[in-house]
Write a sequence for this structure.
């Protein structure tokens, strides 16, 4: 008897909480995309795109722009207009306008993502070249609703290393870690949305530099993140007739190794070992006979590309590769002195990249 | 004559009871506290903390082994006489009650922040106390079974920590002992406290079936706890950069937040709900021993009334105080201070005292 009453009591207690605190999906406006930008007078603009769960609505997506002082403040303003209560728990993308990216301390605005346990941190951070409103109010006919389209675009492009994919959590890592500067997906809307590569930020998380999809692959290799596909199409220097010699290859295996030593300045020696399989060749060549020659010329070209990318970042004083992490691990006493101005120290460093190419296959024809 | 014959516990139950009492909510913030004090070398402090807790545990068991039929209550009365002994056991009662209180409040705050933001604290605690009552009103054997069963039920949890590990960077650990031993040693007190809970073994000894394995059992329990702490801390340190980890209050939950499957997001919520079972094996023994000692103190056979009284007091105080995170941290600090005396200082002291006491008594009886 006693047991039964207790059981009933506990059942009632459990049911009661359900009565008081419930949420229908129609009553939630999930902000699947959140956009941050600045207007002409440098006021913060917050954009949101959320799905509408209603049969009568013709367009199943709400898009709103408000002028707010912070993300959390914008939520109140969204609630004034959108159908239901705004929730940030499912945000897929965070679009940040380049204008805002160039502002000091813009990163303070994304604090609620980390602070509120209800918010997710697997949101993809994307830089938008141009106004965010162009992207967010874009309604392509041949695509699903924008959040799904953009999320899928970033994910699949990342698999081929066209761009980088940085979640808010990784972004937090990159901005707090002193040995690396942040890099995020970059997007542009002309007449359609394009991923233009990767935006590189400096130690204060201000925008510094954009790199192309091809350079992004090199960036990933130098970051030692060699998962996914790395297809290359390059023009190799050959002594004969002066035409472009285009060759494409896939790389089933890339191994990167970085060593560091200190001799008045930091010296990084990075070895990149690539195994390539030729997937396309637009010039006559006997691979079976002259494999070594082809390997040499690919190596030469890749090495030059690596060096150009590194020079570019060094002149702007950023280290998106994370060489600083190596400096800390292996030359700690010297690192400690420069850890707060790592960008400056890195720009003085010697970075030597050595590429070793092995042609693993030429495909099914000669 | 065996006083506790009907309530004997097996070696496994003994191990999991101690292990369960040790592992509570502390581990969720442990990596951050270690990183604050000792950077990426903080994990070494766990091993040092483990050594000291094993040492204290062995003293504890050796003291108990001299009087295999006695719990701490009888031992204290034997050593210090009725009045002082009873006063001392009251200290343990207050300690266990307060310990249970801090764990319950802390667990309630987590549940409130992550799942039930609008449910009042006392309702959550009421829900906690129903299963607590069902387990704690019985004898030690039921408690032991509960702890053992819970352990098997949650043993899969560590597997999920391996998922973020693939994005970890082992370079974060290098160089070992960045700043020498001093910061590591400064983190040792924290880790020592995270092993608190083994003091329940004071009361378990007379119940244990195979007393010859008591030392082995308590060492295994401590080692299991150490391995779990070490594993979680190492995964957190590998994933988060040494600069980034200190910004998160509970880095373990932030780590789990990253785990996403196609069909499941926000794994931290799932895990936190399941982790409640682990936390319950920490507060239930505390509630039990507070009630058990009170019944011994007042000379009653049945302790279940005291369980009800204690739980009602806890619910009442929560209703009245409405504790905050900062309160909760303050109380934990107080528990830790008490634990230092009652779990780490008392066992060696009692062991030395028993040695002198035996010598003295023998001389008198001659």
């Amino acid at each position: 008897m006693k047991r039964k009453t207790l059981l009933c009591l506990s059942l009632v207690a459990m049911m009661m909480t359900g009565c008081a605190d419930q949420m229908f999906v129609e009553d939630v406006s999930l902000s699947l995309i959140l956009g941050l930008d600045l207007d002409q007078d440098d006021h913060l603009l917050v954009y949101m795109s959320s799905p509408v769960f209603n049969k009568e609505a013709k367009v199943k997506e709400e898009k709103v722009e408000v002028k707010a002082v912070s993300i959390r403040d914008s939520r109140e303003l969204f609630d004034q207009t959108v159908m239901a209560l705004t929730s940030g728990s499912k945000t897929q993308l965070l679009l940040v306008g380049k204008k805002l990216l160039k502002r000091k301390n813009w990163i303070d605005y994304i604090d609620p993502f980390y602070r509120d346990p209800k918010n997710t941190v697997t949101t993809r951070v994307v830089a938008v070249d141009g106004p965010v409103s162009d992207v967010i109010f874009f309604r392509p006919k041949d695509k699903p609703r924008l959040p799904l389209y953009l999320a899928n675009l970033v994910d699949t492009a990342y698999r081929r290393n066209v761009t980088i994919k940085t979640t808010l959590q990784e972004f937090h890592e990159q901005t707090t870690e002193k040995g690396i500067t942040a890099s995020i997906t970059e997007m542009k809307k002309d007449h359609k949305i394009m991923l233009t590569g990767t935006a590189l930020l400096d130690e204060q998380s201000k925008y510094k530099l954009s790199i192309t999809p091809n350079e992004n692959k090199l960036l990933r290799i130098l970051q030692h993140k060699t998962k996914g596909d790395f297809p290359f199409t390059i023009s190799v220097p050959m002594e004969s007739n002066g035409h472009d010699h285009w060759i494409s290859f896939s790389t089933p295996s890339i191994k990167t190794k970085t060593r560091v030593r200190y001799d008045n300045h930091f010296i990084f020696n990075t070895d990149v070992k690539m195994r390539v399989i030729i997937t396309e060749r637009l010039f006559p060549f006997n691979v079976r006979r002259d494999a070594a020659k082809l390997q040499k010329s690919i190596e030469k070209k890749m090495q030059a590309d690596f060096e150009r990318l590194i020079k570019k970042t060094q002149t702007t004083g950023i280290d998106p590769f994370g060489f600083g992490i190596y400096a800390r691990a292996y030359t700690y006493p010297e690192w400690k002195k420069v850890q707060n101005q790592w960008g400056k120290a890195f720009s003085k460093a010697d970075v030597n990249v050595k590429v070793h190419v092995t042609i693993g296959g030429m495909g099914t024809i000669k | 004559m065996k006083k506790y014959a009907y309530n004997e516990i097996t070696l496994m139950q003994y191990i999991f009871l101690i292990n369960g009492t040790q592992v509570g909510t502390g581990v969720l913030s442990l990596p951050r506290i270690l990183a604050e004090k000792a950077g990426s070398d903080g994990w070494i402090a766990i091993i040092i903390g483990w050594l000291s807790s094993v040492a204290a545990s062995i003293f504890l068991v050796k003291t108990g082994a001299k009087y295999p039929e006695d719990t701490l209550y009888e031992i204290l009365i034997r050593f210090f006489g009725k009045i002082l002994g009873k006063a001392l056991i009251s200290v343990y009662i207050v300690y266990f009650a307060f310990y249970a209180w801090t764990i319950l409040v802390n667990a309630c705050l987590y549940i409130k922040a992550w799942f039930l933001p609008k449910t009042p604290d006392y309702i959550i605690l009421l829900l906690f106390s129903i299963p607590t009552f069902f387990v704690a009103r019985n004898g030690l054997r039921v408690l032991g079974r509960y702890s053992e069963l819970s352990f098997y039920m949650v043993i899969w949890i560590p597997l999920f920590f391996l998922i973020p590990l693939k994005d970890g960077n082992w370079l974060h650990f290098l160089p070992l002992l960045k700043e020498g031993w001093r910061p590591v040693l400064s983190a040792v007190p924290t880790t020592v406290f995270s092993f608190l809970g083994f003091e329940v073994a004071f009361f378990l000894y007379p119940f244990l079936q195979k007393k010859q394995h008591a030392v082995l059992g308590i060492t295994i329990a401590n080692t299991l706890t150490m391995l779990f702490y070490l594993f979680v801390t190492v995964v957190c340190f590998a994933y988060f950069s040494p600069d980034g980890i200190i910004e998160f209050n509970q880095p373990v939950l932030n780590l789990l937040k990253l785990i996403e499957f196609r069909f499941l997001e926000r794994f931290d919520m799932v895990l936190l709900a399941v982790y409640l079972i682990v936390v319950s094996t920490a507060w239930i023994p505390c509630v039990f021993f507070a009630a058990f000692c009170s019944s011994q103190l007042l000379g009653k056979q049945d302790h279940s009334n005291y369980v009800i009284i204690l739980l009602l007091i806890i619910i009442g105080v929560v209703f009245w105080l409405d504790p905050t995170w900062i309160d909760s941290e303050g109380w934990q600090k107080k528990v830790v201070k008490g634990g230092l005396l009652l779990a780490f200082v008392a066992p060696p002291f009692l062991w030395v005292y028993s040695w002198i006491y035996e010598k003295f008594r023998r001389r008198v009886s001659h």
